[in-house]
Every structure is written in C-alpha cells, then in structure tokens.
Design a protein that fits this description.
The structure holds two protein chains of two kinds.
Chain A: H1 2-21, H2 25-33, H3 38-73, H4 78-94, H5 100-113, H6 131-134, H7 139-156, E1 175-183, H8 185-190, E2 193-197, E3 201-204, E4 210-214, E5 220-224, E6 229-233, E7 239-242, E8 244-249, E9 258-260, E10 270-272, E11 274-279, E12 286-293, H9 294-299, H10 310-330, E13 341-342, H11 353-358, H12 360-368, E14 372-376, E15 379-380, E16 385-386, H13 396-400, H14 423-428, E17 436-437, H15 438-446, H16 452-459, E18 464-467
Parallel strand pairs in A: 1-13, 16-17
Antiparallel strand pairs in A: 1-12, 2-5, 2-9, 3-4, 3-8, 5-6, 6-7, 8-11, 9-10, 11-12, 14-15, 14-18
Chain B: H1 2-30, H2 45-49, H3 94-104, H4 121-135, H5 138-141, H6 147-162
Helix pairs in contact in B: 3-6, 4-6
C-alpha cells in the first residue's frame, strides 16, 4: 500500500507538471480555438508584409535564372527563333542531319529557356536582391503570412472554390481604378485641375515620394508644364512631378476621405478614396483617376437611381459588381491611361460620393449583396444587360459570334418587351438584348415578387452567385 | 493484486502523457524558429527536369535534354493584365516587350497588314488580333495560335462590344 501511495504522489507531481506545461490535448484545442487577439493579429500582419517582401526576393532570384537561361539558350531575333523552330519540326519529321543544328538549338530554347520566361517580368524587383529580405522566408514569417491570409479570407466569409475570382481584398473587395475624365495639355494649362478634401491629405509624385501634406479644406492645383511634367502648386511649394501625381488620406484611411475635385461641366464633384492624375505620353492626355474599393465603386453607380424595387436594385448592384470584377481581372483597354474602367455609360456610369449620398437605396442593395458576383462554373460571368428587348433576349453567339459565354443564352422576356419600338429601333438605340433585360428584371421584381437571385438565374443560364470577398 | 492493477493504470497514464507531451514539448521548446533559418529557394521547373547548370556557358548540354517539355509551346510569355499597368517597361528583351504590348493592346496599331496569312509566327497572331478588334469579329480571334494573345483578343473584343451597353431606369 505504501508502494502505491508513493506512485500516487509521483503521478500527482507528473500530472501537475503536465498541467503547468499545458500539454493536454484538451487544452491545446482550446488554445487553437481561442480568438486571435489584436496583438497577435498585428504581429501576423507584420509577418504577412515581410513574407511578401521575401516573395519578391525569391522572384528576383528566379529572374536571375531566367537571364542566365536567356543568355545561353535564347535567340538573337525572332527570325532566328522561327528558323530554328522550322528546323526543329523538320528534323523531328525526317531526321535529316542538315536540320540538326537548328533542332538542337530550339530544343534547348524550348526546354531550358521557355519554362523560365514567366520570370522575365521580375527584373523590377532588383531592390529586393539583398540578404536582408532572404530571412523573411523562414517558417515563422510563412506561418504568420498564412494565418493572416486565412484571417482575411474568414472576415469575408467567402464561397468555397472561387475559380477565376481570386483577387482577394478585404470586406470591401479589391481596389478598382476609375478614369473620370481627361484633359488635353492645353486644357490643363488653361484651367488647372484643383481639389480639396474633408480630411488631411498627402501628395506624392510620380515616384511615390511624398512631396507635401495638406490640411483638410486647403485647395491644391495641378497644371501641365512641358515634357510630361505636371506642376503641383497652391497648397505646397511649386513642385514638378513626372507624369503622375497622387492624392491620398494622410492617416491612411482612404475609405473615409472624400475629395472635392471640381469636375468641369458636372454636378458630381465629390469622390471617395484616392485620386491621381496620370499623363499618357502616347495620347498626350492627362486622366483624372479615382481609386477605391469595388464596393464603394458600386455605391456610386449612376446607372440606376435606386428608386425601383429592392430586389431589382440587388440584381443591378450584383451586375455592376460582376462587371467591375471582370474588368479588374481581364481588362487592358485603358492600361496606358492607368485605369481599369471609365466612368461613362460605355462602361458603367459612375458619379461617386454625391450620387452615393443622394441615392442611398443603391448603397443598401449593395450592402445586401456585398461581395457577391455572378459566376459560371469557375469563370467570372461577365453580365451584359440591355434596357429593353423585343420580347426575347439574344445569345452572345447570336449577337456577336462567340460561343465563349454560354451563360448568355436567349430566353423569353415578355416583361422586358418594349411596348412600341421595333427590334431595329431598339438595336439602333444600343439595346443589344444579350443577357439581362433591365425592364424585365424590374417588372419581375416589382410586379411578380421574384427574388433578385431568381431573376439573375433566369436571364443568365446555369450560373452561380458566389461571395468572393 | 490491487497494487499491481494501480501500477498498471499509472504506467498507462504515464505512457499517455508521454505520448502527447513529447511532440508538444519538442515543438515548443526545442524547435528553432530563428530568423536565420536556412531557406532553400524552390528550384526552377527547368532545373527540376534535368541536372544541367545554367552557369556553364560552354557545355553542349542540349543532347541530354528530353525532347518534350511540359511547357506550352503556344505561349511565348506567361503574362497577365497586371503587366500592362507599367506599359510593359519591366520587359527588357525587345521581342518580349513587343509581345507584352500586343497582349495589352497598347501597341501602335498603324500599318496593320490586311493579309495576315502572308505573315508568320507571332506576327500573324498580332495581325489577326488587330483585325478582330477593328472588325469586331470573334472568328478572327480563333485563328490565333498563341494562347495568351488569343485570350487577350477575346477579352479586348468583349470589352469593345459591351461598350455600347446602356440602361435607363
């Protein structure tokens, strides 16, 4: 019995030790399940940012491999490459030795160089080619990066497999750049651009260097000088900036800052988020560009007034968001001008903060459908829409000859049929009749109580509505 | 007998505690997480496929390269719309820069040949893309061999045709 008591005491000590060390699985799970504290989250954010720097370091190392491979296996000109490719094909077919040299050269190019061409773009990361960035690749940083990434994903409660919709972003989605209007060089000289804000703002030049910090309500002006240079003045000492000027919230909260940009010939002067001016050396035009989250962009959509049925507003805001997301992912039309989508009806009419505050039901519908876009399997399903139809919609293939958009099929549209106009008139007025019929959707929501997702699934065949942020 | 059973139970408990404790204590107190942890950069695809060194500029190593690679022969460069934001300035090689500019649709469109079939290789693809966009004809996009140029043709043409989309409430 004494023996048993001794063992019992020993076990008590062992169990106590185990508790102190917190090694029971029960405690471990509890530990994992505990909410991440603000301090841990801040620490993970630092690790997340540092690990991204390591990724750039790593990309630059890949770029160096690409350069070596290029020197060894690349061609002097495209003519040399084409000639070698021809020899390569001929040798494979005939085994004739006269093609062997070209065959061998192209084989090296194809197998040793081409796999590395995906790194050609990373020469821009030369500043990350330092050992100080290398250490940010350790498991500590990588784990912090993954934890923060998971945290970002969890805050949006996104749908499972997002396919092409991989742009991330926080609860308000990825940032979109909107071209508002442009100036010729003479126009900008004659009537300089001017802006002020409701909060203190920072001005950066084309290199991203801060050139001034300005108090709320103080007006800054920008004019064109020569050779692509923009002169910033009024609020700060006259400063020249090459091609670009950026205006951002000094405190870093760009979703709270509202810029008044005195838009010429417009009642819509106020814009949420960042503002930049960019001079295009080819077109010689200077664009005024608004950068803001995709959600805030949808809040300022001038395509509708928001006075229709709530479900109709939800249909339309989901379409606007999907179109914006598609443009963010695939558009290159305005790359040289520095933005993804323009603010005209040709893309989507966008009036910014004035419209947002004057038409709050659009914002309400956007909040109801926040982060949700139309998808077809793993594709972002771009959502064409027309105001009216002649009683049926058209398939994308029927209208434009492409079968790459199978969700745009022809469906009956009795509620979107224009009461008087002929098909030819409707088409001449810009009604392509592909995809959603706006008046059809309005009637289905208002008169027949269809829910917004049912309406979208009627006009777009076999689609899903997925929350992507 | 009772003491023996107790000893057996205690031994089982010790075993259980040790089983759970060992990996936890090892991970928590003996695993290095220092910043100086050695990082082994991932090998490039090419280097995984064979043992040739890129540093050796003289060796004739193409004999040993397998004839078929997993790389798509119908893509010159792996690029995306993000590469267009800086006007393709990140590409140093003239052919690669031109490819990027054509992909982005920010190349000079003047002097487009009307007879794309008379051109070869990428020039033919660039020609078809320009024609497809100017004529708003998706069929012409489908004649493009290079997959990235084909993708950009389709997307840019889609942007063009939808530009007329309007709505009045």
């Amino acid at each position: 019995m004494t023996y048993a008591k001794t063992i019992s005491k020993l076990m008590t000590i062992l169990l106590g030790l185990a508790l102190i060390l917190n090694i029971f699985p029960l405690n471990l799970y509890a530990d994992e399940a505990a909410n991440t504290s603000d301090e841990e989250l801040e620490n993970d954010l630092i690790l997340y940012e540092k690990y991204q720097q390591y990724e750039k370091y790593e990309h630059y190392q890949d770029y160096k491999d690409y350069k070596k491979a290029k020197n060894k296996y690349g061609f002097e000109s495209s003519a040399d490459r084409i000639s070698a490719k021809n020899d390569y094909d001929r040798y494979k077919e005939t085994k004739n030795q006269i093609y062997y040299a070209g065959y061998k050269k192209y084989k090296g190019y194809k197998n040793k160089y081409k796999p590395l061409t995906k790194y050609a773009k990373y020469g821009k990361y030369s500043k990350y080619d330092k050992d100080s960035y290398k250490k940010y690749g350790s498991s500590e940083y990588k784990n912090g990066y993954n934890r923060y990434k998971n945290y970002l994903a969890s805050t949006g409660n996104v749908s499972g497999d997002l396919g092409e919709a991989d742009l991330g972003g926080g609860a308000l989605g990825p940032e979109i750049t909107v071209g508002l209007w442009n100036y010729t060089r003479d126009d900008l000289r004659d009537s300089p651009f001017k802006l002020e804000a409701n909060r203190d703002y920072t001005i950066k030049n084309g290199d991203g260097t801060v050139v001034g910090q300005v108090l709320a309500g103080v007006t800054t002006r920008v004019t064109y000088t020569t050779d692509g240079n923009l002169k910033i003045y009024g609020s700060i000492t006259d400063t020249l900036s090459a091609k670009e000027v950026f205006f951002e919230d000094t405190a870093g909260d760009n979703s709270a800052i509202i810029f008044d940009i005195y838009r010429p010939n417009s009642d819509f002067d106020q814009y949420r988020g960042k503002v930049k001016l960019r001079y295009n050396t080819s077109s010689k035009l200077t664009w005024v560009i608004n950068t803001l989250s995709l959600e805030h962009y949808v809040w300022g959509m001038g395509e509708i007034t928001g006075t229709g049925d709530t479900d109709y507003n939800r249909v339309m805001t989901t379409s606007f968001r999907t179109y914006g997301y598609w443009k963010l992912k695939f558009s290159t039309k305005y790359s040289a001008d520095g933005f993804k989508v323009n603010a005209t009806p040709g893309n989507q009419l966008y009036y910014g903060y004035d419209w947002e505050t004057g038409h709050t039901r659009i914002k309400d519908a956007a909040i109801d459908t926040q982060g949700k876009i139309v998808m077809y399997k793993k594709q972002i399903a771009i959502t064409p829409y027309s105001s009216w139809t002649d009683g049926k919609t058209r398939s994308f293939e029927e209208r434009w000859g492409s079968n790459d958009y199978p969700w745009c099929q022809s469906v009956n549209d009795p509620y979107g049929k224009h009461p008087t106009k002929s098909t030819a008139t409707l088409v001449a007025e810009g009604n392509h009749m592909v995809g959603l019929s706006a008046h059809g959707a309005l009637n289905l929501a208002d008169e027949h109580n269809w829910d917004w997702d049912k309406i979208l699934k009627y006009y777009y065949t076999n689609i899903d509505i997925k929350k992507v942020y | 007998m009772k003491a023996k059973i107790l000893i057996l139970i205690y031994l089982l408990i010790i075993g259980g505690v040790s089983y759970f404790a060992y990996p936890i204590i090892k991970n928590r107190y003996f695993q290095s997480t220092s910043n100086s942890e050695e990082i082994s950069r991932k090998s490039s695809t090419a280097n995984e496929n064979n043992n040739l060194s890129l540093d050796d500029n003289t060796a004739d190593d193409t004999e040993n390269i397998p004839d078929e690679s997993t790389v798509d022969d119908n893509v010159l460069l792996d690029i995306s719309p993000e590469d267009c934001d800086s006007n393709c300035d990140q590409f140093e090689d003239s052919d690669e820069k031109k490819y990027c500019l054509e992909y982005c649709g920010i190349n000079d469109n003047s002097g487009t040949s009307t007879d794309c079939d008379s051109l070869i290789d990428l020039e033919k693809d660039y020609c078809y893309k320009k024609q497809a966009i100017s004529k708003k004809d998706f069929i012409l996009c489908k004649k493009i061999i290079d997959k990235k140029i084909l993708e950009s043709c389709k997307n840019q043409l889609t942007e063009e045709v939808l530009n007329d989309s309007k709505i009045d409430e």
